[in-house]
Amino acid sequence: MDCNYLLRSFFYFDLPGIEFAVSYAWRKFLRKKVAVTAAGVLAVIILAAVFAPVLAPHDPYEQFFEGLTLQGAPLPPSAEFFLGTDLLGRDLLSRLLYGARTSLIIGVVANGVAVLLGTFLGVIGGYVGGFIGGAVMRFTDLMMAFPALLLAIALAAIFTPSLWIVALVIALVNWVWVARVIYAQTRSLAESEFIEAVRSLGASWPRILFLHVIPHLAPTVFVWSTLGISTTVLLEATLSFLGIGVRPPMPSWGGIIYESQSYFLDAPWLVFFPGLAILMLALAFNLVGDALRDVLDPTQRGRG
Amino acid sequence: MFLFLAKRFGASGLIVIGITFITFLLSYFIPADPVRMLAGRSATQETVESIRHQLGLDQPLPVQYLKYLGRLVQGDLGRSYKQKTQVAELIASRMPATLKLLVGAIFFEVLFGIPAGIFAASRRGRKADNLAMIASFVGVSAPQFVVGLLLLWVFAYKMALYPLGGYGGLSHLILPAVTLGITGGGWYSRMMRSSMVDVLQQDYIRTARAKGVRESAVVLVHGLRNAVLPVIAMIGMDIGFFMSWTVVVESVYGWPGIGQLTWQSIQVIDTPVIMGVTLVAALAIVIGNFMADLIMPLIDPRLRVR
Amino acid sequence: MQRNWIVLVLLVGFIMTWPWSAVAGEGKKGGTITITYKDDVVTLDPAIGYDWQNWSMIKSLFSGLMDYEPGTTALTPDLAESYSVSDDGLIYTFKLRSGVKFHNGRELVASDVKYSIERTVNPETQSPGQGFYNMIKGFDDVVAGKTERLEGIETSDEQTVVFELSRPDATFLHLLALNFAFIVPKEEVEKWGADFGKHPVGSGAFKLKEWKLGQSIEWVRNPDYHFPDRPKLDGVIFEIGQEPTVALMRLQRGEVDILGDGIPPARFVQIKNDPKYKDQIVEGGQLHTGYVTMNVRMEPFDDARVRKAVNMAINKDRVVKIINNRAVVANQPLPPAMPGYDPDYEGYPYDPEQAKDLLAEAGYPDGFETELWTMNVDPNPRIAQSMQQNLAAIGIKADILNQSQGPVIAAGGEPDQAPMIWSGGMAWIADYPDPSNFYGPILGCGGAVKGGWNWAWYCNEEIEKMATKADSMSDPAQAEKRIDLWREIFIKIMDDAPWAPIFNEQRFTMHSPRVKGKPSYFVDPVHIPINYENIYVED
Predict the structure, then answer these.
(1) At B35, is the secondary structure helix, strand, or coil?
(2) Same domain, C385 and C325
(3) Minimal CA separation from B37 to chain C, in Å
(4) B103 within some domain
């Protein structure tokens, strides 16, 4: 550590190459540890979702008589209920374990689709340009101004509420933000010197697009696909409230927060634990993804 | 340039009309009867039908829509079903609060997000970078209601540094704006960091470094100018976003913005108000995105070519 | 012969209890209080306003012929100085108090009364209260748009109003105490048009000073109010758009005097347990019942045994506990504070075993699948989940559909959409303290129509006849008999069990220490959350 620090401070400005080599090894070591931990967390969440019936200490739907005080207040963490109980006297830990299923699907699948769709259309808007690009971006503007809450209520009434409908709505609402940012970046990339250089060397446009433009968009896409996990898991709760999400009593992390957030001052565990779970999921994805990219493509190291 | 503007305005007009159409259609897909909600629970069938007739809701949908457009062209947004007040008046009464919150929130998002992003990028892979990353994830994962309540409880109730909610000057604005800044700033910082990292690896930055330019100057002068583009796109989007998605913060702080109006009118299917606020949001988004597209070439001259 | 003795009795009672004797000793004039609300105030037009928030605001800005004694459900004349009813119950003659002034300074006369009620009945006003006045002669012609004048209202001179009804109706005086019959000045209504609701001018205890849309409403005392000792307060300020949790913090800090939305459920237990606030919380009943409707036209709820089984399956104590004991368990449609409530009726016991037997008897030994609709605002989804677990215990698998109120109300108004609805957040709080109001729209045949509020679609011809009879007993001598008949009706309905009554909500009003008054003023059954006219402050 000290050695590294000395080397770095000595060579930092003048010899980026050495800084590069030394810190690379050091970081690789550090990164691995973090990445391994993150992968562990991710595995735990996935296993929890899969094996929830085995792991849960209680039935997540059982409203225990002794799970509420005489005045109907939820119980703080105890030996009986490790993470306390919710507003109906159900075991919070068991509900978090089962809720992992919903939240994984929403956070990963729905958000993933939104990011892919947004990236695809954003690149078309920014790289293809012209009439098609313009049309795509105006369509994005249109979708952005669209009253999403109204759409949610209408869909809730038309379809039977289900997880997949929520996923669809989230994808439908969220891709526009991704598209807009990707568009801005693609435009800037398309005009940069190195793309100009590649083009003058006679590279075909698909080659430019896939080998030179898209790799540079990766960090942005990565930010959206990891940070987006948190926001979509919370958005699912809002949609559930409007009648389009998972039906009660099925648990979801966002739902637990949503229904108990006004109890925050007196029953903080009801917000803290599911909030922590969402944070861990998003962070773990970020770290694991980061490390994977390191291994697969050394030139992309450290972005995102 | 003129041609560009003309095209863009033409397209924007179409967008706004398209949005009015979809919104109008959607409000009829909802299987709730606005007239029933209006007439109340003791109304007779005759009352309901006569109200329906007077609001013109007994006419075919296309006729209703065309009539709405006709009034819209004359600048008439109609009257709220529920409140009977002019929609324009309702929106106008809430616009100043929304604009204040918008400016305040973007200020704090930028204040928290951009420096954190630059800082993290310039110390990439180190502890500071990781801390900034965790902070941004915490901000994004925290429910606004909880952050708002917590800030109020600590800074207004316990410490009495700020007023306990309400609409007013700077002291009223700070907490709601900070709440939005915390929960939205995470996005800015991650975006800023990732695009800064990308830019700092480019050849011209190496050239600058090789010329012996100070690192801080490299980052702030050469890097920032190019790295900030996606963030500007995000600010453009935020302008529209804040028109309808700030209801939670508004209600925690008792801030009379447009989000509460939107939420309440959707709950009772007050179509004229829903249409009105959607129109305003659409305009804001069109203007926001348009400004972002105009500003980007000013910062990055290469974009002017197109 | 006119029965003037009623007037006499009422007048004596009136003079004895109210206002000079009772009020003289309590409270001085002066001071301003602040009240918070989360939702926007929609309108203050008495013909239009019909939610619990603007209902009592309108009561303090306007006045009508009749009113209730503060803190009770006893009728008392307000703008009427005296009144009399003909023997056949068809003619009501009111003598107006003289010298009453509108906030704009003009004197209120008999033609204003006629105008105001005609305005409510006129379809162009779009008043939700229109249907209440269908017994006034000429109602149908006005509704059909043939005329704007109600044949059944005459003004023989400036101080006398005579109503002629097409059928006797025992609730008529209550209907004149509703906001929809409050008196408005024609010139102001015509001046403001549709915006009258934002520029209300009445003859009530307070007048509007300023309305900042979406932010605040400020009232000041009406110096010309026809009860010279009221109101006590110089003014009232409503702050709008405030989250109840934050409003509570402000009350704790002394910035707010009354929580318009009540104590937030999330903080209720803590506040209730804190001895510091013991004297600031007032508890009272209200004319509310929360119930589960079972659509008697949809299988399997067309079988009374199934409906009874549901009644026996739900653990109402647990439901009440979930909402922190802010209610009392109900076993019949009427709430305890309503005349006609039967304290001796025991209702269906909580007995899952017997419920299972009933289901088996009805041919569903293994239960069935159904849907339970509920409005999405807390605590309703939680209450629904609690009942869902109870139902599951006897084999009924009920899917919960939680939606915003519009779609739920719409589904209830269809004959074949919602098998079960939890009424919470939507129904039913009485419009006026008479059992009749708990029958017609929600249990009578008239409400069992498309778009109606009888979500159980219950229509029993025999009971309908009894109800018609009860409503026509307008002779005050029969008042007690009439209430007895209503009592019988509601217990008979429970034999058919179209509802599972769950609880009657209790009201808990929290106020700052400086606000004083009789406890009943803080949980006034008619003025929610408080009776603005009678409370006072001591600093």
Answers:
(1) helix
(2) yes
(3) 7
(4) yes
Bridging pattern class, strands C368-375 and C396-403: parallel
CATH code (residue C101): 3.40.190.10
On whether the pTM is more than 0.95, the answer is: no
| Cα angle for residues C320, C502, B40 (degrees, 5° grid) | 110
Do B66 and B200 have their domain in common?
A: no
Over the stretch C439-484, which tens digit does the pLDDT of each residue have? 988 999 988 988 889 999 999 999 999 999 998 898 888 889 999 9
Closest C-chain CA to A65: C318
ipTM exceeding 0.90, yes/no: no
DSSP assignment, residue C379?
Answer: T
How many domains, chain C? 2
Q: Are residues B204 and B166 in the same domain?
A: yes
Sign for the pseudo-dihedral over CA of A200, A204, A205, A210:
negative
Q: Please check whether residues C388 and C528 belong to one and the same domain.
A: no
Burial of A139 (0-12, 13-18, 19+ CB in 10 A): middle
Inform me whether the pLDDT recorded for A107 exceeds 90.
no
CB-based contacts of A101, cutoff 8 Å, min separation 6? A49, A52
Instruction: Give chain A's length.
Output: 304
Residue B27 with chain A: CB contacts under 8 Å: 150, 154
Query: How many A/B residue pairs have CB atoms within 8 Å?
Result: 183
Per-residue pLDDT of chain B (306 residues; tens, 9 = 90+): 677 778 777 877 888 888 888 888 888 877 778 888 777 777 777 778 888 888 888 888 889 999 988 998 888 998 998 888 899 999 999 999 999 999 999 999 999 999 999 999 888 878 888 888 889 989 888 888 889 989 999 999 999 899 988 888 899 999 999 999 998 898 899 889 888 887 888 778 888 888 888 888 888 888 888 788 878 888 888 887 777 678 889 988 989 999 888 888 887 888 899 889 888 888 888 888 888 878 877 877 766 654
Q: Which two tokens stand for residue A303?
A: 């972005």
Phi, psi for C85 (deg, rounded to 5) = -120, 135
Q: Which residues contact A273 (CB under 8 A, 6 or more apart)?
A: A83, A84, A92, A96
For residue range C334-355, list pLDDT tens digits in order.
999 899 999 999 999 999 999 9
Same domain, C452 and C524: no
Distances (CA, A) of C89 to C140, C172, C477, C479, C481: 20, 10, 12, 13, 16
Q: Which residue of C has its CA nearest to B85?
A: C195
C299 and C366 assigned to the same domain: yes
B105, B233: one domain: yes
The number of folded domains in chain B is 2
Q: Determine whether A202 is exposed, middle or buried from the number of CB atoms within 10 Å of its CB (0-12, 13-18, 19+).
A: exposed
- Find the domain containing C157 and state its range: 8-201+513-537
Contacts of A62 in chain C (CB under 8 A): 389
Q: Which tokens sit at B117? A: 């992003």
- Structural domain including B105 reads 87-303
Interface residue ranges in chain C relative to chain A, Cβ cutoff 8 Å: 245, 264-267, 269-270, 272-273, 318, 321-325, 376, 378, 381-382, 384-386, 388-389, 399-404, 407
Spell out which residues of chain A touch residue B141, defining contact as CB-CB under 8 Å. 230, 234, 275, 278-279, 282
- Report which DSSP code applies to A108: I
- Which of B28, B46, B73 terminates a domain? The answer is B73
